Structures are given as C-alpha cells and as structure tokens.
Amino acid sequence: MRLQKGKEIDAPVLISGKISPVNRYQVKVIDQVCQGEHFNIYKGENAHGMTVCLKAIRYRSEKKEQFSSAMDYVAFRRATLLEEQKFLSLSYPCMPEPLGIIIVENDSSEDSKFFRKEPLWEEVRKQEPVFIQEFFDSRPLSAIPNIARNYSIAKRLDIFQKVVDFCKYAHHEGYILQNITPDHLLMSPRNDQNVYIVGTHRACTIQDGKADKKHPAYQDIQPPCLPGEILQPGHNYDQRVDLYQLGYLLYYLLSGINPADDTWWLKEGDFFPIKKEIIDISKTFRHYFPTQLWVIDLLLELTQPFPEQRIPDIETLDSYLKNPPKGKVEFQITDANCECIDVQINSTPDNAQQLCVRIETIGKTKIFYREYPVSKSLTFPDKRMGDVVCGIATLDDRRNLSWWQFQSVTIKSRLNFIIRRDTPPDKLSFLWEGPEMPHHVCFVALDEQNKRISLGEYADNEAQLPPDNVTLEYYKVYTIECTPYYQSESGFIAGEIYSQEWLFYPPIPEPTIKYLNQGLELSMIITPEQESRIEDVVVIHNEQAKTTQNARVVLNKQQIQLKYFIQDSLSLSDTHSFYFQVLLQKIGWKRSDAVMATMQLPSIEGLEILEPTVGICQIKWNKIQHPQLDSYEVKYDSEVLIQTPEPQYTFTCPWKTIIEQTQAKIQVTPIFIERGRKIHSEPSTIEYTPPTIEKILKDKILCLVSPFSVQFTLDKNFPMPLQNNMHLALIRVENDEPVTIAKVKCTQNMRMIDTNIVPGKIYEYYIHLDNDQTLLWQKTIEIPKVEISAQLQYVGYEDLVWEIHVEENTASCIKGRIEIIREHQGKETAQYFKWGEDEEVYFFEDKNLDPGSRYKYTLRANLGKELYTYAMGEVSTKEYNLEESIEVYYNRAAITWNPPISGLLGGIEIYDKKGRLIAFTKADSITLENLEPDKNYEFPLKYRYSNNCLKDGKVIYFRTLPYKISADAFDVGMDYFRLRWDVPDQGVARRIREFYLDVSGNVGKHILSKTTRSVHLKQLYPATIYQWSIMARLKSGSILQLYQGETQTGMPLFISEVEIGLVHHLRWNFPPCPAIDKIEIFRNDVSIGQTTENEMYDSDFKGSAEINYKFYYVLKDNRRVLADEKNIKPLNMSHLFAALQIQPCIGGIKWDFTNIRNFKYFKYIELYQDDTILYKQGAHIANLTFEDFGKANPENNKYIGLTDEAKNYRLAVVGVAPSTKKCKKKWTLNIKGIRCSYPDLPEDFAIYPEHCCIFFEWDEMDTDLLRQIIIRREDNGAILYQGTNQATSFCDDNNSRGLQVGQTYAYTIEMIYNNFYTTRTMEVTLDSFDPVHLDFQTNLINDVLVITWNTNTSTSIELIGWQRAKSLSHFFQRPIWTEFQAGMITIPLPSSNKDFAYQMLFHDQYGHNFATEPQVVNKNIPM
Fold it and tell me: Which of 425, 482, 1000, 1409 is geometrically suited to a Cys-Cys bond with 1027, CB 3.0 to 4.6 A?
C-alpha cells in the first residue's frame, strides 16, 4: 500500500486482534523513507508532534504466486505485521518501540489494479493494517562510507558486541532474528555510540529448540546471508542461522564490503565463497593488526556453511568476544559404530582444565553435551546412526572456552541379506535381519552400462524383485544394490549398501497337458535362446521324477516346443501334480509352476437351450475329446430321456408344462469306460423354464381407446396352441378396487369392451386366466378428454368471428346441435349450429353489436351422458378512437379530427375541467377562442353515436404559445447598461396590469408600471454576464414571460509582465473599478495567492519546460474573471549546471560558482557532502570559489586530501525576493560520482634507457599532499629512490656496475599521499640506445654538418663521435671523438653531390662503445 505525502490519517487502533471502537490515532505522512522488499516505510508526525515511523504492506506478484489464493497471501502478509508487533513488544533499547497498529482503507491504485480479479478485495481493502512505531533518525550501517577505514578495530568490534547482546536477548526470549544485515542496522550520524535494529518482521519463534514451522516468518531468509541448513530440503534449523548472519556482519565491519551490494557470492558458483574473502582480510590483519588475528578465526568459525561446524550458541560467541580464545584442541575419531564413538586427544592448550564434548547427529534435535577431565582418550557410548559431528573444546580455571574443533563421521548400520533359492528364474527374493531394522530398504538394479533402474522400496523384511511395474531385459546380468534407510527426525539416513549380481532369465513355462489315447503329453514352448541355456529337464509327477520320452518340435524361428510323453496309466479319479525341473547354466536348478491335473473325467461344457418354436426344446453342448468317452445321458426332471453319442438332443415340451408353468431341470452326463465298467462323470445341469401364457400373449392383445369406451381383442394373425377350456377375465382397478368388466373364452375372435368410463381419467386394466388368476396382461390407460376449443378470429366495431375446433373422438359423442350463448349487460342470447361428421373447424360469426361494448360467450354441447359447458371468453368490440391535430396560437387553438367524424359519430361534446359543456360540433374541426398565452389547457370529450348513445372519449391537452416582444440592451459600459422594449399587440397590452424585470447577479427583481418601456441599470460588476427577463402580470393574475436576454459588461484593461530569475517577479496595472476587490494569480492552474498590491514574487514553481501564469480579477461577490495570461520559460537545472564549474585535482575538487551570481535574485549557495555542509557564501562575495581538500591535520593545520572514492555532493542555490525574505526558493542539484585524482606517476615523468643504465626524471607536482615518492627495482626489491615532492633526476646503473644489455627490468613507483597510496609497475628493456633525450640538433653549414646536443642532460655518455658508414677502407672508418661537455661535433662532407652516410658513436662511463643506425645526408637537400 502506498501512502501519499501530506496525507492526514485518523484511524481506529487494533487492540488484541480487534478494532477498538473508541481508541483512535492521528498521524500525518511527511515523506517516504524507503521501499523495502515487503514494506513501504514512511516518516510521519502524530498529533503530539512526535516523529513516528509508518510501516505499510507492499503487495508483490512474485510473492503472491506462492499461495493457493490471493486472499491467503493478503492474510499471510497481515499476520506477519501482527507478529512483528508482538516481537517488538519485548522492548529492548536498540529496537523501535511499537506504538500500535491502525486500520485504514487501502485506496492505493496499485493494489486495486493488482487485485482487480479478486471479488473479495473490495471488502478486504477496507481494513488495511499500518504499523506505527518509533522513528530512528539514523542511517543504515551499509550507508556509512569507508567504515573499514574510518572506524578503528575496537570501534567496529564494539558495534558487533552490541548486536550480539541484542541477539542474545532475542534468543533467550525464544526468537530467531533471521535478518541481521548491514542494511537493517542503523547508527545515528550525531551519536555513533548507539546501534539500532529494524526489519524485525522476519523474526521467527522457536518451538522445541527449532524454528516454528507454523510461524509466518519461517524460512524467510534472503541471500546472500543464507546458511547451508536453509538449502537442505526437509531440514529444520535453529538459532545458529543468526550466528551465520552475524559472521557476514563481522565480515562487513572488517572489510567494508556489503555482500548485499556485491555479486562475488554469485560469480563463484558456490553459495559459500566467503572463506576465500576472509583469507584476503587475514593478510591485512597480519600486517597491520597482528594482535587481533583471533577475530579472523572467529569470522571463520561463524561463517561455516552448516550449523554443526559453527559456533554452537550465542553465549559461546559472547564469551569469545569478551575473552578471546588462546588455543584449540587437536583430536581425531579412531572408531565410530552404532554402539559408541572413540576419540583420541592429540593436544590441548596449556591452561586446559576440562574437556567440553558436544556430539550432534545431523537431523536430530537431541544433542549430547558433557564435561570430562583432561585425558588422552574418550569413549562416548550411545546408539547413533547417520552423519555425526563431534566437537571438543577446553575450559581453563576461569571457565574460559578455547576454540571449538569439530570432526565428522558417518555411522551406518549393517544388515544381513539372505537370498531365497526356491524362486523362479525371473524373480529374486531377499530376506534381511539385523540389530536395528530399517524403516525401508531401497532396491536399485544396475545394468551393464551402469544405468540405474529403481526396483522400489519395501517396508517389510522381505522383497521379491522385480516388481510388476518394472521391466528388465532377459539374459542380462544386473547388479542389485540394497540400501537400508533408517528413520530420523529430519528424514531418512542411509545404511551400508549390499550388492548382488543376478542373471535375469525368463520364467519356465508350466506344463501344458494333452490327453492321448495311451497316456499324457506334457509340453512347453520356449525360445532358442532359452533352449541354449538349458542343460537338463525333468518332469516331476506328484513330487517324484517321472520317466518320459522326449521330442523337440521347431514351430518357427522364435519358438521351439519340447514334448514329454508319459505312457503310464494314471488313475481317473485322483488329482495329479506336474511341473518341470530345469537345470540352467550359471543359475542351477529352477522349477516351473505346478499344474494340478484331476484325472476325473471331464464334464459337459457349453450346455445351452434353443427354443425354435413354442413347446419345442432343443439342447446342445460341446463335444468331449477323450478316448474313453462312451456316450451322453440326458435327463428331464430326473427322468432319463436318452443316451446318445451326439452332443445335442431335441424334444417336445408338453402343453401341461406351459399351462402349469413348472420349471424343469435338464441334466447331461458324460459316460466313460475304464477297465470294462462305465463311469459317470459329473453331470451338467441347466434349468428350463417353458414359455408362459403371458409371454405368448403379451404383445398379441390389442387395445382400442376412445373417450367413452376401451376395447380389447386378439391379433388374428398370431397362430398359437390354445386349449378350448381357457377363459380370460378383464379387470379394471378404480379407487383401488378391482372391478370385473368381462369374462370371455380365449378364442381368435374374442372381444372385451368397457364403456363405464369417464373422459380424462386414468384406469389400470388387468387380463388374467379366469381359472387360476394367472396375470397375462397389465396396462395403465388414460381416457382421452373431451377436446373442444374456441379462438377469437376477428373483432370489429359491430361484429366478431370465433374459430371453433372439436377433436374427432369428441365429435363422435355430440348429440344434437351446439349452442352459443352471448351475454351482454345481464341479457343472454342463444344461437345454434350443427357439427358435421367430416368437419374440422367451424367459424361462428356474430353481428349487430355495439361498438366499444363487452360481451361474454359460452358454448354448450350434449355429449350423451352430460351437458358439456365451455367458457369461450369475454370480448370487447372496437371503439372509435379519433386522432386529433391541434394548431396552437397564443390566444386560440384550432382542433381537427382524423378520420372525419361525419358518418361515424353523431357529434362531439367538449367540456372544461369542471365538467361544463363549452362546445358541441358535428363538423370535422372546431376553433376555441379567447385563450390566454402560455397556459396549459385540458378538455375532456364525449362521443355521441348515431343511436344517440353517449360515451366518454379521450381528453385533449395543449399549451398556448407564449407571447414574445422585442427588447435589447444598449449603452453598455464597464459597470452599467440600458434596456428597452415594446408591446405591439394592443389586445395583450390592455390585459397587462404591471411589468416585472428580473436581472441576475446583484440587481434582482423589480416591479415596473405597465407603461414603462426602458430602464437604466447601474453599479454592475465588470466583465460579467447578466441574464435578464421581462415579464408581465395580466389582470387575470397570470404571469407572461415576454423576453429573455443576456448582456456582458466591459472588461477593464489589464497590463502584466513576469521577470524570470531564481524567483519570479510578477507586476501588473489596471484602471480602478469599485467592483474589483483584489487580484488572484494562478500558476499552472493552481492559485498562488490573492493581493491588493500591483506585484508579487513566486518561488514555489518547479523548473519545467514552460510555466503558465493567469491573472484574475476577484470581484466583490468572490467571482474570478480572467484578466491576463502569460507563458514563460523558467530557469531549470540545466542552466544551473551550465553555470557551475567543477575541476577535480590532486587530492581535491575545485569549485567555481561565480557565474551563478548572474542569475536574478541570487542570494547565497550551500555545498553539502552527505549531511555535512562544506561551503556557504552569499551574493555579496565577488569571487565564489571553493577548494575541497578534505579534513585538515590538527598538528600542522594542513589538508590531508580527499579519498579516491567517488563522492556525491548536493548544491543548494537560494534565490530570495528583495521585498520579503519569506519568499525564497532553494534549487538543489545532486552532483554524483565526482572523484579527485591521485596520479600514480610524478609530473612529466620520463624514463630514458641508455646502453647499460636507465635515467628517471620528473618535475615537482603542484600539490602539498604528496609526502613521498619511492622507486624500487623488482628483481631485488632495492629502493632506488625515496624522497619528497621535488624535481628529480637519477640513474639506475646497478650501483655503478651497469645493467645488463638486452635485459628487461621491472620498476615499482609508489606515490604516498597524505590520504592515499598508489603503486605502478613499469618494464624497461635495454635493447637499443635512443639518444632522443640528449636533444640532438643537426644543421648543414656550407659543406660541414654541425651536430649539437644538450650538455645539461643527465647521462652516462662521456664521449660522442662519428664515423663514415659503408666505406671500403678501414682507414675511412676510423672514429672521431669529442668530449660530451663540448656539446658539438662537426662532420666535413665531400665535395660531390652524392649521399654521405655516417654513424654516431657513443662511449659511456662504464667503458662501453655503441653506435646508432647509419644516417644519410645530401648537401643539396635542405635540412
């Protein structure tokens, strides 16, 4: 939620989770302080003038997606705010005091857009919590510049100690802070002794020693201060996450690097690269703070990635800070198993009195801690398993701790795995046992390419592999890995892995049995690859090996059938067991599944009944293939019908069975012969139900229904065997009582009729056998209703037509004529008509009716049993509805009717509102005279028909036109004008009693005599539109609006001008006018003030492209009238920047503000760095310049220079109006990234390599900040030069021994300033001599070449000479030498015009001679 700057809030307070109806809090929003990840922070002021902090929730889309719904996200964020209030209620000096939570309406457009798709948001936003707490006028620790340079080690450790004290307090109160970062620690710029902590919304409660998973802040920890336990899924964490964040805080205090601002922790590809950074800091400590190296060890202990290797608690950290450890224990774990851990102590500190032992099993809450006397070895008995961390420290006589040292070991439980041998070759069965049984065992198969295939997890002590959902390849060797997992508090711990190789072979097929004439055949179908691995096959019969004859049949390329024949006689009545025992290569004996073969003779299968015709039954079954089968025996209700060798039989069912509906059982039994006797197998039975009479007759009884009868007959085309003595009874159920309608003999021509029925009713009919009540037919029948309907077809003025329909079944029941009765005004008239047999519709026409009258029609018909009455409805004939057209004038109205009334009506009577007859006409039009103008009239009409019947007609309405006159305004001035008018119609003029003049504004309404025709209006407002009306009061009392008009008074001349500067000067002038009260000025349509003066100064404008000023007259009635408008282009920041001159220099920055004095109304300037003012001067100073060289040394009062870091400045340019100091404007320029220079080389630094030495030269630098210049040679580290800032020249010649030619030398130039240090490395190679630094000058004078050089140059050269080049004679190559101090040498040139080649020769003080490359000169070519 965003709060607008300047917003005043008066809201109820949330107390104990409920909105208080009486307690309210008033606060005004001053400005936004910052925008955090979860909250917007504002500075405010309450009703008592106290500065407070307002904390409003910031809703974000990337966080919303983590919740099931948007409203859950809102509830979670608000719960976080309530939890923070609860935490701050603990009250600690460095925490802000909670002042309360107020409930406001969230009117933020951003949040409304964010939750636009949530229907509940409109209700939820009405109760938005805002947290009010104490405001700290401080800045974050991360915003303090150069904290590592400006604060001493003691000061930084003091800051760290204060944070540790607060963290210790929070831990004792049951909280984990989770947000200890430099961005959330504040220090006051006025009193840096105080440290405050904010951002406590991430504080999480502790439950059973761990972070409370139900708390809203659980795991709300942001990188880079993200410890390793947070990254481990399934692991909970404790207060040691705060120790990790304290380590990052200590790293910042020591290095000045905020991990939140740097990206090194991401670039390293590791979440914990800080150890490398700590090593870099330790180098600085060894050099500058050798006595504080324990702080580096403390930093390493705090920033261990995982909590088991970290300092164990906040009390230990507090102890280390107050009493730095003096040593550490060296030990090793010699043995670790599930029963105990053995430790050997190698060394302890000299002051050790006791050993502290801390053993933690990762993932478990319980931690072993005990103190022991100092000894060489220790044993810790207990059952442990998993990753165990053992920590040992010592206590001295004052119980001061040494450094904790940790060793890790993994303890795994060992299981004994047993493989069962009685499993098929495609299954592998494991059993396991051990001292501690695991929660489950995970099995994985590794193929020949080490691809891992999961075989599942098993919680019992047995597993059969592979499971059904895993497919392995046959004939491949797999390595089965068995990994036990044991339950721990944070998850599962893996035990020792057991491996077993396994050849996966297909299952051995079970025997397929086939009966032979002389025995049995057992077979199995396998693949060629299966056969290649089979060494032997044995048939097992009833667990005994059976002698067989074998056969092999190749079915196809992929299938081979192995057959085994048993010729022994087997008992037909016993059950036999058969399976294959197979010897497989590299596997051993494996067996197939057993097949249970019962030698009892087979029974009938597929027994079914076919009924081709009524009473004929045919049965059939599957033929049995058996050598000992003799025949089939068929029984019908235990009576043997036949023994037949065929698998079917047909017989006739007696009619008695159909009539009696008795159910019969049909049995078919196979008969076999064994050793000369017949053996009956198990019979197969099927129940036979003969067809019922109901089934036969169900669809053959026909029913014919009419409104007055129901008739039942039999389908004559259905042949059936019926007995002569069969009688049927027809029963009708009415009011739950059965009524026998008819009893008839069941014949082909039978007929049963029910006439005692009522149309529209529903009856239920039954037909059954009369002799035994067997139900044959049942149906519910709805009797058709009498269907007579009438629909109005046409209605006229004096006639109408009805359309009458009668359904066919109703028409057949009508007796005689149909009667139509018309009822009108209590009188009935009857009319009759006859309904024809083939007639479908009848049109009844009724004439000689009265127009506009209402009639009621009723139809009556005799249907035999009763007189049927049908209400046709009520009808109104059409009424003559005349349309009139009225032509209205201001004193009369002409009325014309359409259609014309002649021939339709006898006349029209016109009445007034009081019911008085005022006119009668038989004509088609009439004119009403003597009407008043602009008046509403209402006249009721009555129609008189030709039969002299008088009926009410419509009412006509109209309004007469207003009467208008001519009028105008003239002689219009700035505050007056005149009106004149005339009344030309004398008839109207005679009716006028008096005039009314109504004028808007300050004039009002006036009464004038009826003879008045003009008026003069004075003391009006200028530039004002006046509406005026002229009205007349008639003698009848009516008011007439005669004329309406408007007139605008004149505008006074207004002259204005705007003078542009740092403030704006506005001036104006206008003629005096009593109606003008004051002048109001608007800037960009916003009022900036009212005044009675003729000038104003403006300072609240913003530098923009254009400013619009509007000048308004403010009249006595408080109205504004636009007098003038000016558009100006004001100054902006670019003008100020253009006038500002900034010159960075060595150790400082030079500022020139002189050009700013040229701006109109300039008063003074202020220059700030951060919150510190550096320079302030006014316009009375001619030369506005300032040089910033940092702080001055109190010893010599000289500047020490600025640091090399980029600096941000704030320049305030203030303009003040000359008439009042209250009107001033401060222009603020933010100048960022200004950096002073610290050259890493002296002024005009130059290096001149010679043959075997190197010269260095430089000039004095224009600065007092450079204290020392040091030049070293890298190969031996020797200091070649060490001196102050002055012009210098020196030579490196290896202590007069000379340097080695062709060698490259590296030099380090160190520039030591008061507040900075630079270093630069340069390489110089002595590969050739370049005499450029000797400043050689060559001149050709006649036939002599004159070469000069600068003898004041530092050099090792003692002699300079020359010799000819390319000479064939050694004589002419003889060198000619001269002293270096001579400064000149001459070379005579030959008289010819040929090119002359020569070489310059040099001899140095080390005895070396060397030459330059040959040079060519031609005396004819000017040099």
Answer: 1000
Instruction: Give the dihedral of Cα atoms 539, 545, 547, 553; nearest 10 deg.
Output: 10
Whole-number CA gyration radius for the chain = 61
Percentage above 70 pLDDT, the chain:
92
Amino acid at 935: K
CA 1103 – CA 1130 distance, rounded (Å): 6
From CA 1129, how far away is CA 1107, in angstroms rounded?
A: 6
* More confident position, 1263 or 612: 1263
Query: For 738-794, what is each residue's pLDDT tens digit?
Result: 888 888 887 777 888 888 888 888 888 888 877 667 777 888 888 888 888 899 999
Q: What is the pLDDT of residue 640?
A: 87
First to last CA, the chain: 83
| pLDDT value, residue 672 | 81
The residues near 33 (Cβ < 8 Å, ≥ 6 apart) are 41, 42, 43, 53
**Element of type H or E holding 255:** helix 240-255
Looking at residue 268, what is its pLDDT? Answer: 43
- Nearest Cα neighbor of 104 from 81, 83, 88 is 81
In 3-state terms, what secondary structure has residue 244? helix
The Cβ of residue 1390 has, within 10 Å, a number of other Cβ atoms equal to: 11
Band of residue 1420 on the pLDDT scale cut at 50, 70, 90: low
Q: Are strands 841-846 and 854-862 parallel, antiparallel or unpaired?
A: unpaired
Phi and psi at 283, nearest 5°, equal -60, -40
Q: Amino acid identity, residue 1398?
A: Y
pLDDT digits (tens, 9 = 90+) for 1132-1190: 888 888 899 999 999 999 999 999 988 999 999 999 988 889 999 998 888 899 999 88
Average pLDDT, the chain: 86
- d(Cα 702, Cα 753) in Å, to the nearest integer? 12
Calculate the alpha carbon distances from 71 to 18, 101, 117, 201, 824 in Å.
19, 20, 11, 20, 71
- Other CB atoms within 10 A of residue 685 CB: 13
Give the HSE-up count for residue 1069: Cα atoms under 13 Å, Cβ half-sphere. 2
Q: What is the pLDDT of residue 1330?
A: 82
- Which one-letter amino acid corresponds to residue 1131? L
Q: Which residue has the tokens 């670790």?
A: 336
Q: Which of 276-285, 619-628, 688-697 has the lowest mean pLDDT?
A: 688-697
Using CA atoms, how far residue 750 sits from 712, 754, 854, 1320, in Å, is: 8, 14, 57, 133
Angle at 40 between CA 36 and CA 44, to 5 degrees: 130
d(CA 537, CA 523): 11
Sequence-ordered list of residues with C-beta below 8 angstroms from that of 11, at least 6 positions apart, any chain:
24, 25, 102, 103, 104, 130
User: Which H, E and C letters describe 666-701, residue by residue?
Assistant: EEEEEEEEECCEEEECCCEEEEECCCCHHHHHCCCE
Long-range contacts of 522-525 (CB under 8 A, 24+ apart): 522/548, 522/563, 522/564, 522/565, 522/566, 522/578, 522/580, 523/561, 523/562, 523/563, 523/564, 524/561, 524/562, 524/580, 524/592, 525/555, 525/559, 525/560, 525/561, 525/562
